[in-house]
Amino acid sequence: MAPVNIFRQGADEEKAETARLSSFIGAIAIGDLVKSTLGPKGMRLENVNILISNTGMDTDKIKIFGSRVRVDSTAKVAEIEMAEKEKMKEKVERILKHGINCFINRQLIYNYPEQLFAAAGVMAIEHADFSGVERLALVTGGEITSTFDHPELVKLGHCKLIEEVMIGEDTLIHFSGVAMGEACTVVLRGATQQILDEAERSLHDALCVLAQTVKETRTVYGGGCSEMLMAKVVTDLALRTPGKEAVAMESFAKALRMLPTIIADNAGYDSADLVAQLRAAHQEGKTTMGLNMNQGTIGDMSEMGVTESFQVKRQVLLSAAEAAEMILRVDNIIKAAPR
């Protein structure tokens, strides 16, 4: 699964033509929201054939750098400009031969080619950033092209509908019914930057957990059920273990029981009462019992469908144990008598 990039309101936005995409690439979703268009406002296209390109469409005016052109009249300048326009017109005609009704370009599109596309009924979207056109090509099933001499060799993108939508104060172009199956764009909105940052972190964590679950499909019961099960087994083993090791094992079991305590505290319930009820239920052999934070009681996690990723739970335990061991080693070194 590729990394997840979530663009908030105003993030990395330099001008109105900047493209904004969310990249949920893989088995989950792919961003399909692009900002700005040079096509007719309010345009709605159905059954769209899309040509995605990275080519210069801004040469309908004279742009000569580092050189000098001498002419003896302004008519000569007009002839040069006309030649540039004819070259651009031929290029647009080659693009139109692909049988498209939407053209998306990585670079700028000047007024003259825009007029030609509009006259042919083709929506033109300019200045989509390079990562943006790559994601759009991926989700629509097309390829990024730079030359247009062989239309039969070009792979076009497809989607069922392109329309303008309003999100907040921004006008965006929405691609729906894309060729690569399900796709979506997640737009985060909040009153403050801190709320947006927290929402982004939460969404990122959820997607990472989902990615791990796709790789490792095993799950365990949530709601503190797994921690109470492990704590019970460790406590039973500590009772049969002689020596000081039993003290360490009891402390480990107590640390495991802290997770359902924290869950109850965060929900605003009496953690001492709930954890005591949960511990008693597990002692009676009800190994699927956990915390029901909707009702403020204990409940059967199998009936409620509360599960967690086995891989994530395993990594949490390993990381916590390694961190605790590292702190204990450092404390021993600090307390060691000088030689």
Automatic annotation (TrEMBL):
<protein>
    <recommendedName>
        <fullName>CCT-beta</fullName>
    </recommendedName>
</protein>
<dbReference type="InterPro" id="IPR027410">
    <property type="entry name" value="TCP-1-like_intermed_sf"/>
</dbReference>
<dbReference type="GO" id="GO:0140662">
    <property type="term" value="F:ATP-dependent protein folding chaperone"/>
</dbReference>
<comment type="function">
    <text>Component of the chaperonin-containing T-complex (TRiC), a molecular chaperone complex that assists the folding of actin, tubulin and other proteins upon ATP hydrolysis. The TRiC complex mediates the folding of WRAP53/TCAB1, thereby regulating telomere maintenance. As part of the TRiC complex may play a role in the assembly of BBSome, a complex involved in ciliogenesis regulating transports vesicles to the cilia.</text>
</comment>
<comment type="similarity">
    <text>Belongs to the TCP-1 chaperonin family.</text>
</comment>
<dbReference type="Pfam" id="PF00118">
    <property type="entry name" value="Cpn60_TCP1"/>
</dbReference>
<dbReference type="InterPro" id="IPR027413">
    <property type="entry name" value="GROEL-like_equatorial_sf"/>
</dbReference>
<keyword id="KW-0067">ATP-binding</keyword>
<keyword id="KW-0963">Cytoplasm</keyword>
<keyword id="KW-0143">Chaperone</keyword>
<keyword id="KW-0547">Nucleotide-binding</keyword>
<dbReference type="InterPro" id="IPR012716">
    <property type="entry name" value="Chap_CCT_beta"/>
</dbReference>
<dbReference type="InterPro" id="IPR002423">
    <property type="entry name" value="Cpn60/GroEL/TCP-1"/>
</dbReference>
<dbReference type="GO" id="GO:0016887">
    <property type="term" value="F:ATP hydrolysis activity"/>
</dbReference>
<dbReference type="GO" id="GO:0051082">
    <property type="term" value="F:unfolded protein binding"/>
</dbReference>
<dbReference type="InterPro" id="IPR027409">
    <property type="entry name" value="GroEL-like_apical_dom_sf"/>
</dbReference>
<dbReference type="GO" id="GO:0005832">
    <property type="term" value="C:chaperonin-containing T-complex"/>
</dbReference>
<dbReference type="InterPro" id="IPR017998">
    <property type="entry name" value="Chaperone_TCP-1"/>
</dbReference>
<dbReference type="GO" id="GO:0005524">
    <property type="term" value="F:ATP binding"/>
</dbReference>
